[in-house]
Amino acid sequence: DDRYDPQVIEAKWQREWAARQIDRTATDPQKPKFYALSMFPYPSGNLHMGHVRNYTITDVIARCRRMQGYRVLHPMGWDAFGLPAENAAIERGIHPRVWTQQNIAQMRQELQRLGLSYDWEREVTTCHPDYYRWTQWLFLEFFEAGLAYQKEAAVNWDPVDQTVLANEQVDSEGRSWRSGALVERRLLKQWFLKITAYAEELLNDLEQLTGWPERVKLMQANWIGQSTGAYLEFPIVGSDEKIAVFTTRPDTVYGVTYVVLAPEHPLTLQVTTSRRRKTVEAFIASVQQESELERTAGDRPKRGVATGGKALNPFTGEEIPIWIADYVLYEYGTGAVMGVPAHDERDFQFAKAHKLPIRPVIIPPDGTASTRLKAAYTEPGRLINSGPFDGMDSTAAKAAITEYAATQGWGREQVQYRLRDWLISRQRYWGVPIPIIHCPQCGAVPVPRSELPVLLPEEVEFTGRGPSPLAKLEAWRNVPCPKCGTPAQRETDTMDTFIDSSWYYFRYADARNSEAPFDPAAIKDWLPVDQYVGGIEHAILHLLYSRFFTKVLRDRGLVHVSEPFQRLLTQGMVQGRTYKNPRTGKYVIPSQIADLSQPTDPDTGEPLEVVYEKMSKSKYNGVAPGDVIQQYGADTARMFILFKAPPEKDLEWDDADVEGQFRFLNRVWRLVQTFKANGGQLGQPLPTTLTKAEKDLRRAIHTAIKEISDDLEGDYQLNTAVAELMKLSNALGSADCYTSGVYSEGIQTLLTLLAPFAPHISEELWQQLGGTDSIHRQPWPKADPTALVADEITLVIQVMGKTRGAIQVPATASQAELEAAAKQSEIGQRYLAGKTIKKVIVVPGKLVNFVLAP
Ligand code: ANZ
Ligand code: ZN
Question: What keywords tag this UniProt record (predicted)?
């Protein structure tokens, strides 16, 4: 039976490759290195199509680079700490460790069925003590560098999960990214990593990342959020204290009509008069319930109260009221703002709402002052009402006013970042214990490195309520202080799992090291990652945190690189066909629809809308990778995913196109069977002269090599690469030279080029043809430029209008090339020797006529 049966051959080759350890990382120091990395998955239980797409793309790149002579590091691992495991423990009484291990086993098996060429000896699992021991060790590096600290902070409190969330884990509606609960605010003592110390470098170094999508770099830059402006001080009337503000518009300082503090500002009660005290305290208490998002929403009334206190505008000598308002955030700038209602939208709304004066100080360059502003004028312009700065252009005035303030000791120029320090404390069990012991005498004392890891205790209770399981374990918590021996208490917070994934790509370089997180020599050998592939949802956090970690570890002398990921590819979503009732917004299960070509709602009979949306259980539009592999095999699944869309674009799942790729692989199969049956072999010699058919086929072969090689550089246009494979197979199918060495070259080339894309069928056919070793160890073919030359034409050579002969030239030759070819030809040499050419007439595609001087 010579039918293509993917089930049989895929299982066979997966076994064989594993036995031969063909995917082990090569160590040959002669070879250049290539580090191909997919973002490692959270072991949720099952692989989804998004994973399949991500890993297939990276696998093609890794396989291709191996064939091109690189030693390739292509590892896989598990981002294995996190909330879902703990939720499973709460809901089903299964231990997070057990749940996680089961999921990993399941998903590893699914990955193996896809024929991904991972070096499993370097597998990394973040919840294993031999990994998190080093996460703790690295935390201590941050601690020793002064980059890990504790502070009381208003945190996002998820009332459902009973845990603190990072800002990034709260969506645009103020809901928890996991539970969906509306997030509240609470004050808690928390651990932070000082990412703000690296804000400037994280921003500036984006420029070096030439292999990153512009979109991702822009998102990071916006997240870091640099603003340039001034720091100005407003003395409090009747006190020695001053209110410092950060402003991007020092040019508007003569338009300040009030100063406003964030409710959390330490000076609020001090500036408040006794008459206003009750009101102010009530207001501050009410703001505590609001999320940051509510507070800053543009369309919301600006709430605030007057404190009764006054500040001095040092520029005008004027006394202005001090207010407290919720639109001022304590964590940004200085937590206080100079109110310029005439030129700031929020201040304008606030002034209108609270009847504060509005004083214009900037007018349009060609305009005049209007007495009644309908809205804030936020554009640049010319200064008025601004004392010595009147008439100045606002851009120049920014500098002049800042400089004046500096000479007077009232302020200075200031660069401000939106980026905040990274809150890493989680009141959860299933994470890395923070290796700190709190001593009443010594404060926060690091656990000595020799005592790492601080192991997660196994026996804990999961109730889902109250403090975290670790906080309830008295026996585990109570330990002597490592410094002075006084009874002390372990930190019970665990780390944000983004910490685990901020350094895993270093660990792969030296995954089994039991003495250190990694040997710097191994890092030198492999880093940076040459190609990183993953979802756009990680454009900000994971990638920014990893860049931060890299810079800190560099400054600690542990790694030599400043940036971890040389090139980044963010693959698009995999979307499924979705049937949706446009009126109710309800998604309908396809199997309940009577006629899919004219879908109607089974409940109401209304026509349904057919749209492509990201695959998800709730939309009934998911396709399980296992099902596709079962039906068509991994090679077809891979080919479809690669063919259907360029890697960075969204991909619409389409059963017909899956079928199409299956048929294509069947055609390749039959092509080789026929070739074999006709006595064809690999490595037949090429004929010395080629027939037209052979030339045509050879051109097709080498065009495929050239095009596919180009597609695999830089941009990774893997969809067009698959299209080229299909073209080559068609050319072989219709070639009229079955027994020629060129045909043999064609079959061999097709299989070799196909190998990274469909690794099993190409290996099987290669072996059937008696190929040596594995196809995945064959060198990548090189395009022969002479074979690429298009058809030749016959060029007539004339001298003084008389035909002297004809030559063969490439059809694509230019006029100048035709003239040169004619001159240099034997005929040309013979008839033109010793003559002076007066003029050359070229008729493209036909003839060259030389006119000679008399
Ligand atoms: C006076 C002013 C006048 C302002 C004007 C703007 C326009 P970015 O670009 O985001 O850095 N601001 C400063 N600290 C704040 C805080 N903690 N909470 C809320 N708002 C704050 O914005 C800087 C501007 O945002 C600052 O410049 C300040 O208002 C406000 F015509 O100062 B400006
Ligand atoms: Zn102590």
Answer: Aminoacyl-tRNA synthetase, ATP-binding, Cytoplasm, Ligase, Nucleotide-binding, Protein biosynthesis
